[in-house]
Amino acid sequence: MLTKEEMKKLAAMHAIERIQANMIVGIGTGSTVYWFIEELARRVKEGLVCRCVPTSLATYKLATELGLSLMTLNEVSKIDLTVDGADEVDPALNLIKGGGGALLQEKMVAAASDKLIIIADSSKFVKALGVFPLPVEVIPYGWKQVQEHISFTNDIGAVLRLKDDQPYVTDHGHYILDCHFNQISDPVKLSISLHDIPGVVENGLFIKMANEAIIAAADGTVENIVAV
Ligand code: 5RP
Description:
By secondary structure, the protein is of the alpha/beta class. About 30% of the residues lie in helices and about 25% in strands. Helix 1 packs across helix 2 (about 30-45). It is globular and about 55 Å long.
């Protein structure tokens, strides 16, 4: 049986085969995509030509250290393919993302991509989204008002994410509320209602954005789920 880390690497090794010469590649954030970035850098050293758009400061630093050629989102007209992880993936390939705090930039990069491939171990594949707390990125000013609004309207806990006992601050200077829905029956409706709240910057629901999910299981099998 494979460990979780081996499953993540296996999914990443499948995704890497989609990279063709001269592509502009969006590179996601997190421990699963780490394996993808590492292998991409190895192939670049062997002669593969590609340019990458990172989705976070952490990915920017990793990719720079590994010698990948990077561009900002403003420097490209579009991205050919983005490979990213997820916290939850449902059968329609709707996602919860942002466990690593990079949801805003990840969503912008995904939206600019011709294709989004999600790589994950099988624990991320769920029947319905919502057990993983939904990250909602908010501006620091008046965040308690937003927290109360989300909690009251949905009758759920919306918990300010902390790091070292201080509010966790995203790459873009915002806070994150982790929202404990438990089950999200209508992701579209929820996403629209969250966007309606003044002070909300973005939420971690990625609806109809992923084209394909590559899910690796502990027995070494890999499932390719393609969006219809
Ligand atoms: C970061 C993300 C990540 O893709 C998500 O949290 C999955 O991370 P990991 O591969 O480490 O489990 O959305 O904002």
